[in-house]
Design brief:
Elements lengths: L10 H8 L3 H9 L6 H14 L4 H9 L4 E6 L7 H14 L3 E6 L18 E5 L5 H9 L4 E4 L11 E4 L1 H14 L6 E5 L5 H17 L8 E3 L4 H13 L6 E3 L3 H13 L9 E3 L16 E3 L2 H16 L8 E4 L2 E3 L13 E2 L6 E3 L1
Parallel strand pairs: 1-2, 1-3, 3-4, 4-5, 5-11, 6-7, 6-8, 8-9
Antiparallel strand pairs: 10-12, 11-14, 12-13
Length: 355
């Protein structure tokens, strides 16, 4: 049975529950010597169940003297992460904190992250980077955590910073329908279990519903928020003879794969197929044709995450359960608009906080 936060687990408790020696627990905690993976997993499970914090880590946590923040991300790839990291690093540096970054996996049986109570004052956790059980353990231990682009698990009071994915996607698809007369619009989903992808899909569906258009399930495919995944998905749609006149690619990395597949098939953008992405990463304006996209305040997400994490570290109450930052529809040539069209705002410029 897991201990409550008020009880104090010892290294001996962890060793007994895992069925190993105290020395083995110490090696797993400190990472000083390799441990057989199966044994390490038992130790890590016991640490989670008992909410064990090493004595040295407890002293550091109490004194708040690491002056270091941690960032957990599933991977660092694609143009999306550069502005996010810039916002996080800049805000942390301005506040006098160092930043440690670890890539992680969201598998339930994954190893305990190397970042946590023992070497940081708080964590920023990106979507799909930490299992819900570990998030709940950190909350019960009173350790400061802020989530990025991921809602907190049920009954776990951890703040979330994200963007208006649904509204931005709805504006993009409405533009294709209302301005360009598109009726059969492909949507490329992101990675499985991606909350951002799910919200963008809701915006896609809502735009169809409000326009009185039926959605053809055959036009929804998995692009994975990647060039290669999107290119393969589009090739499969073309090989099946799917009829479509527009693509909402899910993100800008996917849009590059869509462009490659459509060009290879001899289709012209936007003459034959309109295309809209999401994120407005720096390369999007340099594509041929320049990409119409939804501008996401990615760097601001990083800054806001650090801002709220530092508030928690300093003992201030949580500002909001969810902070939504606004998106904008940026009109360029890939949807069929001319270069003279201005950007169209999706929402106000102020973040929305939901308690």
């Amino acid at each position: 049975m897991a201990r409550t936060p008020s009880s104090t687990a010892t290294i001996g408790d962890v060793a007994r529950q895992a069925g190993v020696s105290i020395a083995t627990v110490s090696r797993v905690v400190n990472g000083s010597t390799p441990v057989i993976p199966e044994t390490a997993e038992r130790v890590q499970a016991a640490i989670r169940d008992l909410a064990y914090v090493p004595r040295a880590a407890a002293r550091v946590l109490a004194s708040r003297k690491t002056h270091t923040l941690g960032l957990l991300v599933p991977e660092i790839s694609g143009a999306f992460f550069l502005p996010l990291l810039r916002g996080i690093e800049t805000a942390a540096t301005e506040a006098g904190y160092a930043l440690l970054i670890q890539t992680a996996t969201s598998r339930e049986d994954s190893a305990i992250p190397r970042l946590g109570e023992h070497n940081t004052d708080g964590l920023l956790v990106f979507s799909r980077s930490l299992p819900p059980k570990e998030l709940d353990r950190l909350r019960r231990a009173g350790f400061p955590v802020v989530l990025l682009h991921q809602a907190a698990p049920d009954r776990v009071a951890i703040p979330t910073i994200t963007i208006e994915n649904e509204r931005g996607a709805q504006l993009a698809v409405e533009h294709l329908i209302q301005v360009h007369g598109r009726r059969r619009i492909v949507f490329l989903r992101g990675p499985e279990r991606s909350e951002e992808s799910q919200r963008r899909e809701r915006g896609y569906l809502l735009a169809h519903e409000q326009a009185g258009l039926a959605v053809d399930p055959a036009l929804i495919a998995r692009g994975g928020f990647s060039r290669d995944g999107a290119e393969q998905a589009m090739r499969e749609l073309l090989e099946k003879g799917a009829a479509f006149d527009a693509v909402f690619s899910g993100d800008d990395d996917s849009a590059t794969g869509v462009l490659a597949a459509l060009h290879a098939a001899g289709l012209r953008i936007p003459n034959d197929i309109s295309l809209i992405g999401f994120d407005d990463v720096p390369f999007s304006i340099h594509l041929t044709p320049p990409l119409t996209t939804v501008r996401a305040p990615t760097e601001q997400v990083g800054r806001e995450g650090i801002h709220q994490l530092l508030r928690i570290i300093e003992g201030a109450p949580m500002e909001a359960r969810v902070t939504l930052l606004p998106t904008q529809l940026i009109l360029r040539q890939s949807c069929g608009c001319g270069a003279e069209n201005p950007a169209r705002k999706a929402t106000s410029t102020k973040p929305m906080r939901h308690r």
